[in-house]
Design a protein that fits this description.
The chain has helices spanning about 5-10, 40-70, 90-120, 130-155; strands at about 80, 90. With about 160 residues, the chain is mainly α.
């Protein structure tokens, strides 16, 4: 029996004479084989830092643009129906959608941070979105759309 046949046997254990051999990365997992631990090196860490710095810079740029008036926030929560420059209708569904979305994102970020802190190894996938959060966001969007369609139907 050669080494290749010995690696492909399902009943092989770590104590055999080919224990120092590791299976290739694309072969399916078989009982008795150990999964090799791969050190990815500093590239993923550097990439994470670059992505976080880019996102922080983007958020700072957007916030500065909003505060300086380059991004117009007029009409975010209101509508000027007769185009006289004065807001005629206030839309509470827009306010609640914004608040629920921001708090929903914050809740998911904190849940992800808790999952990272509780994990003894690095996470390979993001945690599932809680069902309660999905229901809350679905209800919020339903309220927003019902207000939007109700107002458009009222105007004709």
């Amino acid at each position: 029996m050669n080494v290749v046949q010995n690696i492909e046997r399902d009943d092989r254990t770590e104590e055999t004479h080919t224990a120092h051999l590791r299976r290739p990365a694309l072969t399916p997992y078989r009982p008795g084989f150990s999964i090799p631990v791969v050190n990815a090196g500093p590239i993923p860490d550097l990439l994470s830092i670059v992505i976080l710095a880019w996102l922080a810079g983007l958020a700072t740029l957007i916030a500065f643009s909003m505060l300086s008036g380059r991004v117009m926030l007029n009409g975010l929560f209101t509508t000027d129906i007769d185009n006289d420059g004065v807001a005629d209708e206030f839309h509470p569904e827009r306010v609640q959608l914004l608040l629920f979305s921001v708090f929903g994102i914050a809740a998911y970020v904190f849940a992800t941070m808790d999952a990272v802190a509780a994990s003894k190894t690095a996470l390979t996938v993001l945690p599932d979105v809680p069902d309660e959060l999905l229901m809350m966001l679905g209800a919020s969007n339903t309220f927003y759309l019902s207000g939007k369609f109700g107002r458009s139907g009222k105007r004709g």
